């Protein structure tokens, strides 16, 4: 069966500022007065700062669907070709305001002249894909641990704000007392972390896939704002405590994007940091100032305006504008500058073409602390889609590195050097 779609409408991209705001800024500049320009610049800086720390409850569905064809195993979806949909691998397509979720397979046909991409429909977890006109592209693949064939239990982790839901996925064989704690990124949910269950299971680790404040599942803070890692780590600390209370002797933190910043903060600030055996970070934020500068440039925001937005986030007097209960300490989260202070073995998996969190700071961190940091470099994966582009390599890198880190420690004086050199993707 095939159903043609109506002509696509233009929508703002997920990271772009709305046209109405650029009209406001242009009006101020057009007036030609210093006060009007200053007012427009200040308003833009305020908007930029608020957007960074405000969770998006409604995700933009800007990926167009042209047709859904066939039935059963032969079902296909024809999408508009975009920088994301033309990258090979398995992905998810969310539609109907997030109520619908389909898993899509590798590219079957790409016609640049027509601007279309055809992919197989591997699974339809919820909703009616036949009725979808547009949706949201995502590196998330699975909807729950059950989609991977894993037994799991819905549990609650008690945090200082109240109970936060988590998935507890027991090891297939009880070979390790180390648990994996999976921490998703900004604007994502626990589903993002499910890819990490595959290597964790291979290593015999029990996994706890957690939620944290303001992510839509866990309790919200009074200000309902992201702390960019400086507040969320407390919920990860609670998850570590849960693991220790239920049989773990130590943990490995897996973090995606902002989940990387959260994991680094937990390893730095938590009273339970001595139980964090290692960090596995996918496209992590290791320097928020660099990320914000990149986002300002990407959104065509003048450099001075972007810096003012950072200032609003970092100083107490900016709280009335940003809505934050407390300012963000960017220096404390600058792990490039603090590289030598990172004493937890860390694996970073990052694509050089990451369009949201630049690759450069990850490379600098690895270069400045090769004793502790191993960098696995990917290509063509964009943001947090390293697994999607090359799942076998991603899983192999994690398993081999963690197996070495988690191996029984040598006796005093024997000294086994750590592997610190990453490899280059051949994608």
Automatic annotation (TrEMBL):
> AB hydrolase-1 domain: which residues?
181-366
**Is Disulfide bond a UniProt keyword of this protein?**
no
Q: Name one GO molecular function term.
A: catalytic activity
Keywords recorded for this protein, A-Z: Membrane, Transmembrane, Transmembrane helix
Question: Could you list the residue ranges that cross the membrane?
Answer: 21-49
- Pfam assignment, any one: Abhydrolase_6
Record carries keyword Isomerase: no
Q: From the UniProt record, list the coiled-coil ranges.
A: none
- Could you tell me where the Low complexity compositional bias lies? 412-427
Q: Which residue intervals make up region (Disordered)?
A: 408-427
Protein's name in the database: Lipase/esterase
Recorded source organism is: Sinomonas humi
Source lineage:
Bacteria, Bacillati, Actinomycetota, Actinomycetes, Micrococcales
């Amino acid at each position: 069966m095939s159903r043609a779609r109506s002509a696509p409408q233009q929508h703002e991209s997920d990271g772009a500022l709305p046209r109405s705001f650029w009209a406001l800024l242009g009006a101020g500049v057009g007036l030609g007065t210093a006060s009007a320009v200053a007012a427009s610049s200040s308003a833009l800086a305020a908007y930029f700062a608020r957007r960074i720390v405000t969770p998006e409850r409604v995700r933009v569905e800007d990926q167009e669907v042209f047709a859904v064809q066939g039935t059963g195993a032969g079902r296909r979806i024809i999408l508009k070709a975009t920088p994301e949909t033309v990258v090979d691998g398995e992905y998810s397509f969310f539609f109907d305001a997030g109520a619908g979720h389909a898993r899509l397979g590798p590219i079957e046909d790409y016609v640049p002249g027509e601007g279309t991409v055809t992919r197989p429909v591997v699974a339809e977890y919820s909703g009616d894909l036949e009725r979808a006109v547009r949706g949201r592209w995502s590196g998330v693949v699975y909807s729950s641990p059950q989609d991977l064939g894993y037994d799991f239990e819905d549990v609650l982790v008690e945090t200082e704000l109240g109970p936060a839901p988590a998935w507890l996925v027991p090891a297939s064989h009880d070979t390790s007392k180390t648990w994996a704690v999976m921490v998703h990124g900004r604007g994502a949910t626990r589903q993002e972390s499910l890819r990490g269950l595959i290597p964790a299971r291979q290593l015999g680790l029990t996994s706890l896939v957690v939620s944290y404040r303001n992510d839509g599942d866990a309790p919200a803070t009074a200000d309902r704002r992201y702390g960019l890692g400086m507040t969320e780590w407390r919920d990860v600390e609670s998850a570590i405590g849960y693991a220790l209370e239920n049989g773990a002797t130590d943990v490995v933190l897996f973090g995606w994007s902002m989940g990387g910043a959260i994991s680094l903060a937990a390893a730095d600030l938590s009273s339970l940091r001595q139980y964090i055996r290692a960090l596995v970070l996918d496209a992590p934020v290791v320097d928020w100032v660099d990320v914000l500068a990149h986002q300002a440039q990407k959104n065509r925001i003048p450099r001075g305006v972007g810096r003012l937005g950072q200032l609003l986030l970092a100083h107490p007097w900016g709280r009335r504008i940003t809505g934050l209960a407390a300012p963000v300490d960017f220096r404390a989260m600058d792990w490039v500058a603090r590289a030598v202070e990172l004493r937890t073995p860390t694996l970073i998996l990052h694509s050089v073409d990451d369009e949201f969190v630049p690759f450069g700071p990850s490379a600098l961190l690895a270069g400045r602390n090769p004793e502790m940091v191993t960098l696995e470099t990917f290509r063509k994966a964009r943001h947090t889609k390293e697994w999607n582009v090359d799942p076998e390599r991603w899983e192999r890198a994690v398993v081999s590195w963690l197996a070495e880190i988690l191996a029984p420690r040598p006796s005093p004086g024997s000294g086994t050097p750590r592997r610190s050199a990453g490899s280059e993707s051949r994608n």
